[in-house]
C-alpha cells in the first residue's frame, strides 16, 4: 500500500480520533492533513502502523499549533490536557470513534443533507466530487453545505458528545444514509478503480457496530443485510481482464456464500419483526437475487412495488423499470422511464439504451449510450458502455 492508499484507508479513522481529542472538526482535519504532508516527506517505507503514526503526528502538530497561535488560557489548558492524556475516558453507549462522530455530525440542529455531506467528507474521506455524485447535485452546492455545517457546529456550540441511548433512534435515519452512501461510493467509485474495498469494508464494519448497538432496530439489520448481500457479489463483478460483468452474467460460484447466508439470516430476522422499511426491502431484493441459480423477477418486481410505495424516489423508479423489463418486456419499462429525471446520473440513459436495443431501435440506443458514456465518471463503466455502443455498429 502506498501513501495514497493509506490516506484512503486511514483518513476517516484519524479524523474521528482527532475530533475526540481536540473537540474541533476543522482543527482535526488540518492536523491530519499536516500529518500526511509530513509523511510524504519522511516516509521511505510505510511504518508498521501507518494510522497510529498519522494520529500521533497530527496530535503533536495540533498541540504545537494551539500553543503557538493562541494566547488564551483556555486554549493553553486544552493543549496541556492533550499532552497529558492520550486516551480520554469515553462515556455513553457508542465506543467507536468513527461511529460516534457520525452520530455527532447527524445532530438534529443541522440540515439533513448537510449532516450526511459533512459526515461523508469526514468519515469516508470522500472528496466533494464524490459526494456530489452520491447526491446527484452540483459540486458547488455540496461544498457550500459542508462549509455551512462546520460553521453551524462551531457557532452554535453543538457538543462533541455521545448521544444518550434515548436519543439514538432519532439520530438513526441520517446515520443509515451515511453508511449506505459510503458503501455505494466504495462499490462503484466516482473515479479511479471501480471498487474501493476500503470504503466497502469500513461501511460494513460500522454497520456491524451499529447493529450491535441497536439490535432491535429492523432498519439497522436491513442495512447490514443489504451491504453484506451486495458485497457478496463483488468477486464476480469484474472479469479476469478487469471488465464489468452485470448481475445476470456473473459466475455465481465466485460469490461469497458465507456473506450470503448471513445476509439471508438478517432478512429473515427483519421479516419476523414485521416493520418494513426501505433498507429492509432493498435487502430482501438482494436476497432474491442471491437465492438459487437465477433471479425470480416476479418477486423482485413485487418488492420494488412495495419499496416505491415507501420511498418513491427516481432511483427506485429506475431500478423498478429494470424489473418491469424482465417481467413485462422492454416496451413497458421504457414507458416507465419516459418522464423520469435524474440529471447527471449515467445509469438512466444506460438503462434506456439497453431497453432500446432490446426493442430493435439501434439509432436511438446509440444516442442514449453516447449520453451515458459522457456522464459516467468511472473508466471501467465507460469502457463497458463503449463496448455496448460499439456492438450496435457491428452487423448481427
TrEMBL record:
> A Pfam family name for this chain?
Sigma70_r4_2
Q: Where is the DUF6596 domain?
A: 171-270
Q: Which GO terms describe its molecular function?
A: DNA binding; sigma factor activity
Asked if the record carries the keyword Transcription regulation, the reply is yes
Q: Keyword annotations for this protein?
A: Sigma factor, Transcription, Transcription regulation
| Domain named RNA polymerase sigma factor 70 region 4 type: residues | 102-153
Entry-linked InterPro entries: DUF6596 (IPR046531), RNA_pol_sigma-70_dom (IPR014284), RNA_pol_sigma70_r2 (IPR007627), RNA_pol_sigma70_r4_t2 (IPR013249), RNA_pol_sigma_r2 (IPR013325), RNA_pol_sigma_r3/r4-like (IPR013324), TPR-like_helical_dom_sf (IPR011990), WH-like_DNA-bd_sf (IPR036388)
Q: Name one GO biological process term.
A: DNA-templated transcription initiation
Q: Which domain of life is it from?
A: Bacteria
> Where would I find the RNA polymerase sigma-70 region domain in this sequence?
7-70
The UniProt similarity line reads: Belongs to the sigma-70 factor family. ECF subfamily.
What's the name of the protein? Answer: RNA polymerase subunit sigma-24
Q: What gene does the UniProt entry assign to this protein? A: rpoE_20
Amino acid at each position: 500500500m502506498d501513501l495514497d492508499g493509506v490516506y484512503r484507508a486511514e483518513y476517516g479513522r484519524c479524523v474521528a480520533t482527532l475530533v475526540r481529542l481536540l473537540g474541533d472538526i476543522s482543527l482535526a482535519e488540518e492536523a491530519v492533513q499536516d500529518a500526511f504532508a509530513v509523511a510524504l516527506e519522511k516516509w521511505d517505507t510505510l511504518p508498521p502502523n501507518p494510522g497510529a503514526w498519522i494520529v500521533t503526528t497530527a496530535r503533536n502538530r495540533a498541540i504545537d499549533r494551539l500553543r503557538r497561535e493562541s494566547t488564551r488560557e483556555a486554549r493553553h489548558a486544552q493543549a496541556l490536557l492533550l499532552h497529558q492524556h492520550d486516551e480520554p475516558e469515553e462515556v455513553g453507549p457508542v465506543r467507536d470513534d468513527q461511529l460516534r462522530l457520525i452520530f455527532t455530525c447527524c445532530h438534529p440542529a443541522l440540515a439533513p443533507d448537510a449532516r450526511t455531506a459533512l459526515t461523508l467528507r469526514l468519515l469516508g474521506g470522500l472528496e466533494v466530487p464524490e459526494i456530489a455524485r452520491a447526491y446527484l447535485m452540483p459540486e458547488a452546492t455540496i461544498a457550500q453545505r459542508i462549509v455551512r455545517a462546520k460553521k453551524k457546529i462551531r457557532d452554535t456550540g453543538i457538543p462533541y458528545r455521545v448521544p444518550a441511548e434515548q436519543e439514538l433512534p432519532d439520530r438513526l435515519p441520517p446515520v443509515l444514509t451515511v453508511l449506505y452512501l459510503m458503501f455505494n461510493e466504495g462499490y462503484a467509485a466516482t473515479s479511479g478503480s471501480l471498487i474501493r474495498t476500503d470504503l466497502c469494508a469500513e461501511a460494513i464494519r460500522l454497520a456491524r457496530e451499529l447493529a450491535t448497538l441497536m439490535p432491535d432496530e429492523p432498519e439497522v439489520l436491513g442495512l447490514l443485510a443489504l451491504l453484506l448481500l451486495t458485497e457478496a457479489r463483488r468477486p464476480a463483478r469484474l472479469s479476469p481482464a478487469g471488465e464489468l460483468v452485470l448481475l445476470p452474467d456473473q459466475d455465481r460460484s465466485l460469490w461469497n456464500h458465507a456473506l450470503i447466508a448471513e445476509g439471508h439470516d438478517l432478512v429473515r430476522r427483519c421479516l419476523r419483526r414485521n416493520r418494513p422499511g426501505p433498507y429492509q426491502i432493498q435487502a430482501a431484493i438482494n436476497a432474491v437475487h442471491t437465492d438459487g441459480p437465477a433471479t425470480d423477477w416476479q418477486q423482485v418486481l413485487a418488492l420494488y412495488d412495495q419499496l416505491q410505495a415507501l420511498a418513491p424516489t427516481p432511483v427506485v423508479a429506475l431500478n423498478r423499470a429494470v424489473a418491469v423489463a424482465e417481467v413485462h418486456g422492454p416496451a413497458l419499462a421504457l414507458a416507465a422511464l419516459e418522464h423520469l429525471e435524474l440529471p447527471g446520473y449515467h445509469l438512466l440513459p444506460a438503462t434506456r439504451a439497453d431497453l432500446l436495443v432490446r426493442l430493435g431501435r439501434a439509432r436511438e440506443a446509440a444516442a442514449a449510450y453516447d449520453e451515458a458514456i459522457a456522464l459516467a465518471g468511472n473508466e471501467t463503466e465507460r469502457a463497458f458502455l463503449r463496448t455496448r455502443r460499439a456492438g450496435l455498429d457491428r452487423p448481427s
